[in-house]
Amino acid sequence: MNEEMMGNVQGGEEAAAVKKGMDETMGEAGHKVRQGIVGSLQGINAIESEIVTLVRNTVADTLRATGCVSGEALVVTRDVIKGAIAAAEEVGTGLTLSTKSVAKGVIMGVSDVGGDVITATQEIVSASVHGASEVGADVAVIARRAVDGAVEAASEIGLNVIEVAKAGGTAAISAAGAIGNTAVVTVKDMLVGVVGGVKEIASAALPKARHEEGGGQPQA
After folding, report:
1. What is the total count of domains within the chain?
2. Can you give the residue range of the structural domain that contains 124?
3. CA distance linking residue 187 with residue 21, whole number of Å
């Protein structure tokens, strides 16, 4: 057995020992909480998967029915995010949870019919940011969730993950720029580490945001 394999075995044994120790010291309340959380997380994963499938099929079927993928993709994308926001408002929660799954489903659906996934990524992220702002949700968190969903879709169906991430980051910061400087900064901070070049993208968006907030010329 080589050193790497031995290290993996030892690591597994240590993890098992830690888990056993926690189980032995955990009381009844701890076990109940653990079981409840595990069940809830499994339920969340199932819900997210259902949303992805619903959105993917809806987008693909709608675009196939229109026969004009390039022209209708943006309209359908906007419509889908409006539906997601309306659902969250109706239930009173869930926008943060659903945004990633909606974005993922949109990208997959557009890809299924041979549409432009980069443009779809920009549109779903931009629409998510604007929608979050309109309903008072956390713009930065929603932006991150939308980009994460697009990137996850790209990874799973073999698209260019880097290009999708850049498109999502650019769209998020551009949309935030229409809201204000604070939104640009918070979105930039949330996306750092996910999208390469996010600082440069944000720098380009900030003068626009200053101009819109101040009603005058951008500051030097």
Report:
1. 1
2. 52-214
3. 41
Residues 44, 162, 174, 140, CA torsion sign: positive
Token digits of residue 92: 């009173």
Q: Quick check: is 44 in a domain?
A: no
CA dist 64 to 58, 61, 109, 113, 217, Å?
A: 10, 5, 10, 7, 46
Could you tell me if residue 166 is inside a domain?
yes
**Splitting the chain (220 residues) into consecutive groups of 10 residues, what average pLDDT does each group show?**
49 54 64 73 82 92 79 84 85 81 94 93 94 90 93 92 90 89 84 61 49 42
Whole-angstrom Cα distance, residue 117 to residue 166?
12
Q: Specify if 157 maps to a domain.
A: yes
Contact criterion met (CB below 8 Å) for 147 and 165: yes
